[in-house]
Amino acid sequence: MNTKILFILLFLGISTGAYSQVPPVVEASNNSVRSTVLTQKFLSPTRIVWKSDETGKQVLNAESILNPGIGQADLNQGKYLTLINDQDLKAGLILDFGCEIQGGIEIVTTINNQNPTGRIRIRFGESVSETMSETGPGGATNDHAMRDFTMQLPWLGRQIIGESGFRFMRIDLLDPDTKVEIKEISAVLRYRDIPYLGSFTCNDERLNKIWMTGAYTVHLNMQDYLWDGVKRDRLVWVGDMHPEVMTINSVFGANEVVPKSLDLARDLTPLPNWMNGISSYSMWWLLIHRDWYYYHGDLAYLKQQQNYMVDLLNLLSTNIDANGKETLDGGRFLDWPSSENQEAVHAGLQSMMVMTFEAGTDLCEILGDKETAKLCHASVEKLKKHVPGMAGSKQAAALLAMSGLVTAAQANNEVLARDGVHKMSTFYGYYMLIARAMAGDYQGAIDNIREYWGAMLDLGATTFWEDFDIDWTQNATRIDELVPEGKVDIHKTYGGYCYKQFRHSFCHGWASGPTSWLSQYVLGVKVLEPGCKTIKLEPHLGDLQWVKGTFPTPYGVVEIEHRKLENGEVKTTCKAPKEVKIVR
Question: What is the CATH number of the domain that holds 81?
Fold first, then answer.
């Protein structure tokens, strides 16, 4: 066979009979080849939000850019988007792709351009106002992902540009006395092509949309690793992973992105260092493993963690003083809104120590390590001697209730049920909801979800945000609109700590808590035995009339429906794989 043809066939992976089907580049590169499981889809813009010129002199044929593209340049003439600059005025427009995505932009140009073309500026935005901002103090940033850059388009060709989290894109022609003609602009969505095995539907459409928005928020962050944000915080933050992993358990089932990310955090953090430099995040690592094992029952994977887990538990046991008080060093952190309340941080860390050693007792008994299980049990008893106050903090109150250091009823009555959704947070809001459920206040938690997470949807969100304060809604403009005079630009105006103004991420996986919570407490799925071998159905409908959904297990999907009867009783129907025992 012709050597050149053989090379091409091999490179394309086409069978050549006795010849190897492995591309030569793979054989030559050996372990240096890295692949990805991500899929790309190309999305057409849904609308034009803004044009720099409405006269038709500088921005021509703008509506043509809404037509679906094919990703291929050609020699045809047509009425295409044309941006024209004179000496003084610059042409530009803002496109809306309908929802937040993770990816970039594909631009296809025509034959009618100069060669070389003029320069353009691209600005991605999670809000319309972000696309109109400058980088630097008070503006957006290029941290973690470029969202503002200048480049030159090809004369007649296709160019894929950037990778960030965005819904909106602004394009501006920069050079004076220039013109550029563009056939297509598409968003390039990069994601894991996986099914939504879990589902949740009830008679309240607001709750249905919240459940799905939380699921989609995490889905976007399931890239090659599990990130916290797709614009900023494109990193493996282990504490932030816990709500994300619980959402994955409820929606997608087992996915390799979770163990891959947990293992990365472990391998990057030799003891006695703390994961991400934060002591609570090392504890979250162990708590995630406990939950992952119960949902998926992968004992072989759990055993791979045993040495690190045992060493971590031994390290944590040295951070308890004679009075049972935690003495953790490193970054002492729960979440940003609680970070200035050191009394609350201590209460949270004390609670997390109890929760971690209780999980450690359970896991070490499963692994047959009686000695470390005994150490964990003794540590719990020692820690219970010291019970911090709730410090007026909903974060502290939630963890104190979850650890059993205070009763859930006390935490709910004294802190969690007060002030409505004020002082809630997107990350620890999940644990506030859990603690309210533990207190039997399911209706209070459902109302919190509607008001707090629902308010983000009312402002145009299609994914949940890094942080949110209900007071921000006062006189605020939706994020999918231009900001009129006299209204508050919510993205530009608010945010603190590391997420000030446009640096604020509007797609943060740690904010997905309602998705898992609704599946666990309203649909009523409680995993009792590792691998979902036994599931208890205990629905709490509150003011809902019915709820139905599905829940993924290693053996298949469980189908569930609950309907409230006229006498107030709830009728449940369920269909489960034969390997899954359902108790009520």
Answer: 2.60.120.260
Q: What is this structure's pTM?
A: 0.94
Check: CB of residue 169 under 8 Å from CB of residue 17. Answer: no
Mean per-residue pLDDT, 425-436: 98
The Cα–Cα gap between 12 and 23 comes to: 7
Q: Note whether residue 482 is domain-resident.
A: no
- Work out the pLDDT band at 339, boundaries 50, 70, 90: very high
Q: How far apart are CA 28 and CA 22, in angstroms?
A: 10
Q: Give 500's DSSP letter.
A: -
182, burial (CB in 10 Å: exposed 0-12, middle 13-18, buried 19+):
buried
Query: Same domain, yes or no, for 427 and 338?
Result: yes
- At 290, is the secondary structure helix, strand, or coil? helix
The CATH number assigned to the domain holding 354 equals: 1.50.10.10
Domain of residue 158 covers: 40-191
What pLDDT sits at residue 423? Answer: 96
Phi, psi of 84 (to 5 degrees): -130, 125
Strand locations in 269-375 (E): none
Per-residue pLDDT of 384-427, as tens digits, reads: 999 999 999 999 999 999 999 999 999 999 999 999 999 999 99
Q: Where are the beta strands (DSSP E) in 345-480?
A: none
Place of tokens 């709830």: 570
